[in-house]
Design a protein that fits this description.
With about 200 residues, the chain is mostly helical. The protein has helices at about 10-30, 40-55, 60-65, 70-75, 75-100, 110-130, 145-150, 160-200.
């Protein structure tokens, strides 16, 4: 079968770019909450700090411990999502990049599992952002010792909520579209296999 260039497979190109962007962001920001501190060079350890100071992300900020011990413990569920990202999603990114580049159909089931899982885990993250109160003077990393931080009184400015939604929504929509797309592709492959078996029996 002749390989169709990636540039002519628009949805696959979107998925390829999504993985290519997601991979460095995962290592440089998300997974720093899991790394031993001594593994992280100073310049890289400042990346999540800068991101949280700018966005006041209640998820990353709490997972990193920037808002104190109590919010970090309260967001243990999010740290479990980071473990899924590290040990499941990262390998999928690498396999997916290779498979999408070559146009392999063998990755469709894997991408379906990944996309359905990621859509499911990103939805509660969006719910947290939407449920975090909007305040003209949001709690930031400079106030980690305050009583508000200890009682999960985190808040966002309207601009920060917009920034966070613009960051998280694509990471929900692309996997959602991928889930539907890959479900149809797997269905088509199964149907084609059944038809081939039927034709072989009739011969």
């Amino acid at each position: 079968m002749t390989r169709i260039p990636l540039s002519q497979r628009r949805r696959d190109l979107v998925y390829f770019l999504f993985f290519a962007i997601h991979l460095p962001a995962t290592f440089l920001i998300d997974l720093q909450a899991l790394y031993p501190k001594e593994w992280i060079p100073g310049i890289l350890s400042n990346l999540p700090k800068f991101y949280v100071e700018m966005s006041n992300d209640p998820l990353i900020g709490s997972a990193m411990g920037y808002f104190g011990q109590f919010p970090m413990e309260a967001y243990t569920w999010f740290r479990s999502f980071l473990l899924v990202e590290a040990f499941f999603q990262v390998p999928v990114f690498l396999i997916g990049l290779r498979g999408l580049w070559s146009g392999s159909t063998s990755i469709y089931v894997l991408l379906l599992i990944y996309a359905a899982s990621t859509t499911t885990t990103t939805l509660p993250c969006l719910a947290v952002i939407l449920s975090t109160p909007v305040s003209p003077t949001p709690l930031t990393t400079s106030s980690v010792a305050s009583e508000a931080a200890k009682t999960l009184g985190l808040s966002l400015s309207a601009e920060q909520r917009l920034l966070l939604l613009s960051s998280y929504i694509p990471f929900f929509l692309v996997p959602l579209v991928m889930t539907i797309d890959m479900a149809f592709r797997v269905h088509d492959l199964v149907s084609a296999g059944r038809q081939a078996q039927k034709d072989a029996k009739e011969e």
